[in-house]
């Protein structure tokens, strides 16, 4: 099997963007980063990342290897040819720059189809539509691509007919291809993308003094350092007083939360009195946030991670429904079944696992 670290990536970004008012789509913002910055994070495990551009595009980055088209006005076939020609690996993962909903899980799945006896492995969606720019190409394609260019036949689907191609049929997978493969071609597409952004929320659960607040404070710094807008919600079972607001909430703010909310049976902290409502009611206050971290909620069905600290407890007490993994300074935990146990002191690993699960 060809490993990810033995493949390069080719981001095809040399189009004029005529339907997007001639802007560089790769520089559009999503989740507080450009499309290009988000793609860099998604493909960080690959060997090298090439960025295919036309000579008129003034885009500079030390984190990508720029490749300029040798042929102008012939479409993405030019970038594909130049990328394969320049690549120092036989296999290159190709994608258009305007698919912001790709996930690491999807990329890893597609990467598994790289095999030396195929000239290409190309994605085919659940409706049977072939996505020729999204997949893996072998250097064995080069001669056929050059012949197509010389013959002025610039449609990639045409030269694919002469290759040994493995089509990756998404109809046999659980991926939501209408979402993942959505191209941003027009201002309307882009407005829909940013307006329909979903806020991700998960709980950090555990018994009292297990270290929930400390973990949340550390995660808040990681999220904000990586450009995410994140808030927190805490349920107070003791009916807090407004002149003595819970110290844990104060720690959330100091750690970098853009906003935080605490609620009890009689009020919530937006300086107004209220009877206790459902969690969904409070989530509406954070609808433009990327993440909301809920502190507690161990008995809920919400996505959650559980903190277990030695000297406090050695068993999982959270509802197993939607429990993603455990965080602890213990190597073994009672009734943890198949759950992964992450080192409580390795905040980078905890953050990366959260991103892989939810983004």
> Which band does the percent of strand residues land in?
15-25%
- Euclidean distance between termini CA atoms: 26 Å
Number of domains: 2
Determine and state the CATH class of the largest domain: Alpha Beta
Mean pLDDT: 87
Number of helices: 11
CA-based shape: elongated
The biggest beta sheet is recorded as: 7 strands, mixed
Order of helices and strands: EEEHEEHEHEEHHEHHEHEHEEEHEEEEH
Which CATH-level-2 architecture of the largest domain?
Answer: Alpha-Beta Complex
Write the layout of secondary structure elements.
Blueprint: E1 8-12, E2 29-30, E3 33-34, H1 35-42, E4 49-53, E5 65-68, H2 76-86, E6 91-96, H3 104-111, E7 120-124, E8 130-138, H4 142-150, H5 156-160, E9 165-169, H6 177-180, H7 187-195, E10 200-205, H8 212-225, E11 230-235, H9 247-255, E12 259-263, E13 267-268, E14 272-273, H10 279-283, E15 291-295, E16 304-308, E17 323-328, E18 341-343, H11 347-358
Helix pairs in contact: 2-4, 8-9, 8-11
Explained architecture:
- It is built from 11 helices and 18 strands.
- The strands form 4 sheets. The protein has a 7-stranded mixed β-sheet with strand order 5-4-1-6-8-7-9. Strands 12-11-15-10-16-17-18 form a 7-stranded parallel β-sheet, covered by helices on one side.
- 36% of the residues are buried.
- It has 359 residues and is of the alpha/beta class.
- 26% of the residues lie in helices and 23% in strands.
- A hairpin with a 2-residue loop joins strand 2 (29-30) and strand 3.
- It has 2 domains: 4-195, Alpha-Beta Complex (Spore Coat Polysaccharide Biosynthesis Protein SpsA, Chain A); 200-358, Rossmann fold (3-Layer(aba) Sandwich), CATH 3.40.50.300.
- The two termini are 26 Å apart.
- It is elongated, with a radius of gyration of 24 Å.
């Amino acid at each position: 099997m060809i490993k990810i670290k033995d493949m390069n990536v080719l981001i095809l970004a040399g189009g004029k963007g005529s339907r997007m008012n001639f802007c560089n789509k790769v520089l559009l913002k999503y989740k507080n980063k450009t499309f290009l910055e988000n793609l860099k994070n998604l493909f960080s495990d690959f060997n090298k990342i090439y960025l295919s551009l036309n000579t008129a595009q003034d885009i500079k980055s030390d984190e990508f290897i720029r490749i300029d088209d040798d042929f102008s006005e012939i479409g993405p076939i030019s970038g594909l040819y130049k990328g394969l020609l320049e690549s120092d690996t036989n296999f290159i993962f190709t994608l258009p720059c305007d698919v912001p909903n790709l996930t690491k899980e999807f990329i890893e799945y597609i990467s598994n189809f790289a095999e030396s006896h195929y000239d290409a492995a190309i994605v085919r969606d659940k409706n049977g539509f072939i996505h020729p720019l999204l997949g893996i190409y072998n250097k064995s394609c080069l001669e056929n691509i050059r012949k197509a260019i010389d013959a002025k036949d610039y449609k990639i689907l045409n030269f694919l007919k002469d290759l040994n191609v493995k089509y990756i049929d998404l109809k046999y997978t659980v991926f939501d291809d209408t979402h993942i493969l959505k191209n941003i071609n027009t201002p309307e597409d882009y407005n829909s993308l940013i307006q329909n952004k979903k806020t991700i929320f998960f709980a950090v659960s555990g018994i009292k003094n297990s270290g929930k607040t400390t973990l949340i404070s550390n995660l808040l710094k990681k999220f904000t350092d990586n450009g995410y807008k994140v808030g927190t919600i805490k349920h107070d079972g003791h009916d807090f007083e407004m002149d003595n607001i819970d110290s844990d909430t104060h720690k959330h703010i100091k750690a970098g939360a853009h906003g935080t909310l605490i609620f009890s049976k009689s009020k919530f902290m937006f300086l107004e009195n209220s009877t206790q409502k459902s969690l969904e009611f409070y989530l509406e206050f954070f609808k433009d946030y990327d993440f909301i971290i809920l502190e507690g909620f161990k008995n809920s069905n919400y996505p959650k991670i559980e903190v277990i600290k030695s000297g406090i407890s050695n068993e999982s007490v959270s509802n197993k429904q939607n429990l993603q993994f455990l965080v602890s300074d213990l190597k073994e935990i009672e009734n943890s079944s198949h759950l992964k146990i992450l080192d409580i002191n390795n905040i980078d690993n905890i953050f990366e696992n959260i991103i892989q699960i939810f983004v």
